[in-house]
Amino acid sequence: MILISAEEIAKHNTYQDCWIIIYDKVYNLSKFLPEHPGGVGVILEQAGKDATLAFSTIHSQEMIHRYLPSDACLGFVDPATVAETSKVEERRREAIKNRPSLNEILHLYDFEAVASRILTTETWSFYNCAAGDEISYRDNHYAFLRIWLRPRIMRDVTHIDMSTKILGYYSSFPLYISATALGKLGHPLGEVVLTRAAHSHGIIQMIPNFASCSLDEMTIARKEGQIQFFQLYINKNRDISRKVIQKAQEKGYKALVVTVDVPSVGNREKDVRMKYTGAPPGIQNEKDLNRDQGVLTPEDAILAAEYGCDGIVLSNHGGRQLDFAPSAIEVLPNVIEGLKKSGLLGKIEVYIDGGIRRGSDIFKAIALGAKAVGIGRPLLYAMSSYGQAGVERALQILKDEFETVMRLSGTNMIADICPNMIDSKSLSNHSLTPKDYLSSNVYDRLVPLRSKL
Ligand code: HEM
Ligand SMILES: Cc1cc2nc3c(=O)[nH]c(=O)nc-3n(C[C@H](O)[C@H](O)[C@H](O)COP(=O)(O)O)c2cc1C
């Protein structure tokens, strides 16, 4: 067995001379590189390094034998020379190897459990964290548990049409992908994975201003006729924002979604603690934001309508900004009522996000007056654990659950889902939340430092 030191491998890191490590074996990819169907760049980023993780989230192991001649394998990396950081990689590699198969995944919490093992501690903390004691974050989910259904029977539910329109654009069911920054922390292809899955399911993706992928990468990934919206943080220097908007328009994004709830970044303790042990690059960019406040009250909803917005997203930013800001689902009835009283209902579309984990959550939001709902973390977890196939499965699970709830509630189309299909009288009574073991089993508790003493 030929052993090659990590130091030696690191020297072969160029286009002409490219070695990488996959599953402890060293490969000379110099000849294969120009032919790699996924492009030269992704492999060059790994040149001279252990590429197992990047490789295994995209390819199966047998791909190597199918595409590379046997003499491309030069030997094994000498384990004695592997740096400490690779032990982290080793843990992640094991987690990928031992992850359940996709058809064993039954609900969105399964993705969260798998991702918590696969992601680096830093990325997990960034994706999972929320503000303060994470009360708003948890209540985003719990609030849905305070709404019950009022199913109607003796109706013909043979044909269910889940399709709807979001700002006039078709969506196969009332869900869109919310903007979440820094997708490449979780998957080498980043947001492009979400773009492709959104297309497979006929839903709209909201592209984050702070995407890891360039606008070009995401535009190229877009299929003919696919609709994307662009999320924008307004920069203090308005000229910069104007240029970004112009570029987004040129690239064919159909709507601009202005995030107005981040005048400064919330106090995200899980993430902050991780920064002491080394933050993933780029997160600090989030500080460079604008001065407005978020839409969580009827007053601001009316203001947004008066400013001429076509729609609003009720959101507490996934509980990542102001702890004890109410959940979007809880404020939804008040906002609808406020718009109605001002004669603005019907002039502006209302969307919500935060804590959507089940098809029944979507149903409850529609019944209370939302046009559609957005989803953030669960898709990041699905993407990080299983790539595009994972995101597609997550969306399919939600679609199937939603269809079942529609059918068993006696509704055939979205217009049938109205306030009297649900019982929301306990929505604002926070002491009446039932215990949800699935959600609490994957919740990553904030732990005081005492645990280290
Ligand atoms: C042993 C070396 C490798 C072989 C034989 C290989 C082979 C292939 C093949 C055949 C494809 C076409 C798509 C498919 O059939 O899935 C592909 C795509 C791709 N590969 Fe590799 N690859 C290798 C290494 C890597 C590495 C190290 C990365 C690092 C991230 C990578 C990233 C990608 C990406 C991003 C795509 C495009 C996938 C997509 O667009 O969906 N590959 N590769
Ligand atoms: C990791 C992460 C990054 C996010 N980045 C952004 C962002 O860049 N811009 C934005 O407007 N919202 C951002 N959000 C908020 C989401 O758009 C959305 O409001 C939230 O994720 C919904 O809650 P959920 O994760 O429970 O589905 C982010 C959320 C997460 C979890």
TrEMBL record:
Swiss-Prot/TrEMBL cofactor(s): FMN
Ranges of residues in domain Cytochrome b5 heme-binding: 1-78
Molecular function as annotated in GO: heme binding; L-lactate dehydrogenase (cytochrome) activity; metal ion binding
GO biological process, one term: lactate metabolic process
Domain FMN hydroxy acid dehydrogenase: residue ranges: 100-427
Alphabetic keyword roster: Heme, Iron, Metal-binding, Oxidoreductase
Protein family (similarity comment): Belongs to the cytochrome b5 family.
Protein name per UniProt: FMN-dependent dehydrogenase-domain-containing protein
Organism: Gigaspora margarita
Phylogenetic lineage: Eukaryota, Fungi, Fungi incertae sedis, Mucoromycota, Glomeromycotina
